[in-house]
Specification:
about 60% helix, mainly alpha
């Protein structure tokens, strides 16, 4: 019945009668007010999606808006203040509000054809005579924000529409003419634009303090550059004067929100060679925002998000523009720190970290792009505002020892190139977003202090600099720091003492400590040993002692690293003293550092005959059995150790010659600052190369393992794998573990006790440490947990979208997949659970197998495939885990299983909401790369499945050529996949490309002209390997011929050139 009524309503929307149009709009709202009708309106009787259904509704509504616009604009011209003018504008506002209302209700049900029509109507209608059409503007800005807030629509947004929306948003935000274009920035503003209308002047402001005029780009009216101190004074006046107290309109709020979303899109054309003016235009307007608005503006949060997103794209691609922005805006950005909003401060820290290398760069070519500044003053101001957070009760939280894991980074695993991993400590189980922000602040503060001390010879330092910059300090400054730390080591404050010991550990782990004498190290060593049993300091003291012991001249194996000059007799004496008192008064708990220290002490003691006879292992075991008691089931804190720590100590007690490396992973939490630091760590090599022309130090394979010398394994006539009778020491360990397990079981049997998640985790750690061979007994439980996680009910709507226009037959999905953040967070939290379950089901059987063959688990693959239709988001979360286990040779996926996975991924690529998804593109490329040895091998016959793999490869090739792979991360991943493919099939016969430009080698060369420096940097190395593949090419090419091909493919834009050298080959291994 409603469908029948709808046809009449749509017809009346185009009526020439005002009454019929008004009633039609009211009827339209009533019809689409029911959610069930909205969700089923576009579904045909056959169960397919008909996009034309929504298109006809919106087009009829657009025609109604057009008629009301004509009536309102004509009436307002004749009678500006008449009653008919007000009524016409009200009707126009109601019609525009209906467009916005319907857009918000149906945003998750629209496809490309409909959204293109909506975008075109909104952008054309909201502007009239180069000004915002007041009755329409706010509604249409909100409608635009709703559309781009839905990820599939944002991913399908044309570059031209993206540019128009951003231009309109900035023009509204900064008071520029609405019709002003970015490409007109080189021209002066129109003559009828008055600077006074753009800024409110302060009556008491001096002429020299006049801010930058947005139209002319002049920094002062007199034309003289301002110093950093003058800019700082302007920033400090913001909160006190009326200079920037501009009232914010609702349109500006929506415009800022729109800009933050669009600039944050990975598909934004800000680096496109088609819009070369975009980086400069966007940064100029972001700088003008700082001149126009105060730190109290409600726009600040979205502005910080927009600036962070922009800098993440431009820092490695437009270094000159970013340097100019950094130097010109540094003082103004510091003026924003007065906000009380921690989310804004998190964004500001991200911005300061990204701009810091450009502000401090010694490359004069960069610094000539901006006004002269007082760099020392700017860095000191940043250090002061960061240091002031410690005294501010509403400031950033301090870094907590309970949230850190105390261990020495393993450089052989490239841990030091990772985020939140320092030389002597790293993030731990209790590490959250607030702690991540505190970490970022401390690192930034340390960088400021180090730069000021080293470059400007300012005698200032702090504990936060010791781990990152100790080798850069001169000897006198190192001695001063050590003297200050020694004064605090005896302070009656456990927290202060703990951080002092962590500073000592960081210094001991540094590569250079020539300024520290043997007598000083002797004092530190003695203090650390004597406080190992003090509850409030034990963990930090043991960490300092362990680090010193690990780097002493007597026991370290590395000649080029720091060798602490500490006499062996002092070391052995203190170890003996500690061991004698261990069973009476030892450390309060087997913390991470305590386990590492005691295990190292036992290994060192075994090299001394006197300590070997004392049987220190028995004393350590007695202490461990007494102090290691699992807490109750209501504990809400995770332990400050991992299962591997206890296992390492048990191995040392039992005298195992070869330690077992038990993998233990601690996931990072989610957050903006975490993403920024992770990306910063990934691109550090490129940044250093661009800004400082610096390459990382080369390290040979033999230099990548720091360890204490271990005693040789005792000779044995028996087979190494044969079982032997346990000795008394091993029996004591087993008895203690069994007793603990029985106590835990009795607590579980108590129905009145409900364990917390933290206590359950502690219990599992205990069980993993205690139990060795119980795979079969818990396999079914783990599999059930995985199934529950895969099929958990989603919060997403239950209706589907249509397929993308580039594909064939329409396919219905069984759920709507929006970009709902709650759903995303839920899936992210489930990934770790799925990873644990799949690791258990694949790695366990492989390790138990005598042959060591990968696990063949058909049921696991079936469970994964089942959720592809019911929960595609869960499917996309679990597929990378499955592929990683296959690459690690823990899981053997049959050809049929690979075919099924390939079909499901291909079908998702047909859906509108996934066809442009960076996530799906990345996962599909990972699937192609993970299975290369199967489908790209001439020795394995996979039948028709090979054709499906080829189709998928050709689809990505065409998408790359057509510019549909807009994310730099996807293109970078595709470049790595092509490189791996050429290693597997250098003749490119399996690819079977019919178009020469779409063959793997040509695609790799085409990527050398990519718009993003990060991709070009990768390809600069990968392309060099083509010379090794030249002799396998069909037709065969000589080296000279290949050289000419590569030369012709290189970019002619000097700003995109990357030096290809032998050093870069190593460089990419670190990236």
């Amino acid at each position: 019945m409603k469908q029948h009524n709808l046809h009449g309503v749509l017809k009346d929307l185009d009526s020439d009668k005002i009454t019929e149009r008004r009633e039609a709009i009211l009827s339209l709202r009533q019809i689409f007010d029911r959610p069930d009708f909205v969700n089923n309106f576009h579904v045909t009787e056959e169960g397919h999606v008909d996009p034309r259904a929504w298109l006809s509704v919106y087009q009829a509504l657009f025609r109604a808006v057009g008629k009301e616009k004509i009536a309102a604009t004509k009436t307002s011209t004749r009678k500006p203040s008449g009653t008919s003018s007000v009524a016409a504008e009200r009707r126009l506002e109601d019609a525009a509000g209906t467009v916005r209302w319907l857009t918000e209700r149906t945003v998750h049900l629209l496809n490309t054809r409909v959204t293109k029509s909506i975008f075109a109507h909104l952008l054309q209608t909201m502007v009239h005579r180069k000004e915002f059409l007041t009755p329409v503007a706010l509604h249409y800005l909100k409608a635009l924000r709703c559309l781009v807030g839905h990820t599939p629509h944002l991913e399908h947004l044309d570059d031209a529409d993206w540019l128009k929306i951003v231009e309109v948003g900035f023009n509204c935000l900064l008071g520029d003419p609405i019709g002003r274009r970015f490409q007109d920035d080189d021209e002066d503003l129109p003559q009828d634009v008055d600077d006074s209308e753009l800024f409110e002047a302060d009556e008491n402001q001096n002429e020299d303090d006049t801010p930058t005029t947005p139209g002319t780009g002049k920094r002062t009216r007199a034309g003289t550059p301002m110093t950093q101190s003058q800019l700082a004074s302007i920033g400090s006046k913001r909160s006190r004067s009326s200079l920037m107290q501009i009232s914010v309109t609702h349109e500006q709020v929506e415009s800022m929100s729109l800009i933050s979303v669009l600039l944050g899109s990975s598909n934004s054309p800000i680096l496109s060679s088609e819009y070369t003016y975009l980086p400069s235009s966007v940064l100029t307007r972001l700088r003008r925002f700082l001149e126009r608005y105060s730190c109290d503006t409600s726009l600040l949060h979205d502005y910080v998000v927009a600036l962070t997103s922009t800098l993440s794209q431009l820092t490695l691609n437009n270094t000159l523009e970013v340097t100019k922005f950094a130097l010109d805006s540094w003082a103004a950005l510091l003026g924003l720190w007065g906000t009380r909003n921690k989310r804004i401060k998190e964004g500001l820290v991200s911005i300061f970290r990204m701009l810091f290398p450009f502000v401090t760069s010694e490359n004069e070519a960069f610094r000539l792009t901006a006004m002269p500044v007082d760099l020392a003053d700017g860095l000191c101001r940043l250090s002061l505002v960061l240091d002031g957070e410690a005294d501010n009760r509403r400031g950033v939280d301090g870094l907590s020892l309970e949230c850190l894991r105390l261990e020495i980074a393993d450089d052989s695993r490239q841990q030091l190139n990772s985020a939140f991993i320092a030389q002597s400590f790293r993030y731990g189980w209790n590490f959250d977003g607030n702690q991540a922000l505190a970490w970022a602040v401390l690192e930034l503060q340390a960088d400021c202090i180090a730069k000021v001390c080293v470059r400007f010879n300012v005698e200032k330092s702090s504990g936060s600099s010791t781990d990152r910059h100790w080798p850069a300090f001169h000897r006198e400054l190192q001695n001063d720091i050590m003297n200050v730390l020694l004064q605090f080591v005896s302070l009656d404050d456990g927290v202060v003492q703990s951080w002092v010991f962590l500073c000592f550990a960081a210094i001991a782990a540094a590569d250079s400590s020539s300024g520290v004498t043997e007598a000083t190290w002797d004092i530190i060593w003695t203090n650390a040993i004597r406080r190992a049993n003090v509850p409030t300091v034990s963990r930090a003291a043991c960490h300092a002692a362990y680090t010193i012991l690990l780097h002493t001249r007597v026991y370290t194996q590395k000649s080029h690293l720091l060798q602490i000059p500490l006499a062996s007799n002092r070391i052995l004496f203190e170890i003996e003293t500690l061991a004698k008192e261990l069973d009476v008064q030892g450390p309060p708990y087997p913390f991470d550092s305590v386990c590492a220290f005691l295990a190292t002490c036992l290994r060192v003691a075994n090299q001394d005959m006197h300590l070997y006879r004392m049987q220190l292992e028995e004393k350590v075991l007695s202490w461990l059995i007494d102090c290691w008691q699992t807490a109750g089931f209501r504990d809400k804190n995770l332990p400050l150790h991992l299962g591997r720590d206890l296992l390492m100590l048990f191995e040392s007690i039992s005298g195992f010659p070869t330690p077992i490396d038990l993998p233990s992973r601690i996931p990072l939490p989610e957050g903006q600052i975490i993403d920024v630091l992770v990306n910063e760590a990934r691109t550090t090599v490129i940044k250093d190369y661009i800004l400082e022309a610096r390459l990382p130090e080369f390290k040979s394979v033999t230099d990548r393992n720091d360890s204490v010398t271990l005693p040789p394994a005792p000779p044995s006539d028996n087979n190494q794998n044969s079982l032997v009778q346990p000795r008394g020491r091993e029996r004591r360990i087993s008895a203690s573990l069994i007793k603990t397990l029985e106590r835990m079981q009795s607590q579980l049997d108590d129905q009145t006790v409900h364990p917390t998640a933290e206590s359950a985790r502690r219990s599992l750690d205990m069980a993993v440490t205690a139990v060795q061979s119980t795979f079969s007994s818990v396999e079914d439980t783990v599999r059930d947990v995985l199934r529950i996680t895969l099929n958990a009910k989603s919060n997403a709507p239950a209706h589907a979208m249509d397929v993308d226009d580039h594909f064939g037959p329409i396919r219905m999905a069984t759920e709507q997949l929006s970009a709902n953040k709650d759903v995303t967070v839920e899936l992210i939290s489930s990934c770790f659970t799925m990873d644990i379950c799949i690791s258990f089901l694949t790695v366990g059987p492989t390790l138990q197998s005598n042959s060591g063959e990968p696990t063949r688990d058909k049921q696991l693959i079936d469970d994964v495939l089942k959720c592809a239709n019911t929960r595609p988001e869960a499917f996309l979360s679990v597929v990378p885990i499955i592929l990683s286990k296959s690459q690690q040779r823990f899981l053997d996926i049959s050809v049929k299983g690979l075919d099924s996975l390939l079909v499901e991924l291909s079908e998702l690529l047909r859906l509108y909401q996934y066809s442009r998804s960076d996530r799906l593109h990345s996962i599909t490329i990972q699937f192609l790369e993970s299975t290369l040895e199967v489908w790209a091998s001439a020795n394995i016959a996979i039948g028709d499945t090979l054709g499906k793999f080829r189709q998928l490869c050709h689809w990505f090739s065409a998408a790359l050529k057509d510019g549909r792979l807009k994310s730099w991360g996807v293109r970078d991943l595709f470049a790595r996949f092509i490189d791996r493919y050429l290693i597997q099939d250098p003749s490119e016969q399996i690819w079977n490309g019919t178009i020469e430009d779409l063959t793997p080698s040509c695609l790799l060369l085409a990527l050398s002209q990519d718009d993003d420096m990060r991709v070009r940097f990768r390809v600069a190395v990968k392309a060099a390997r083509l010379f090794a593949f030249a002799r396998h090419a069909v037709p065969r090419r000589t080296t000279s011929e290949l050289y000419l091909v590569i030369k012709n493919k290189l970019t002619i834009d000097l700003s995109k050139c990357v030096l290809v050298s032998c050093s870069l080959v190593f460089l990419m291994d670190s990236f």
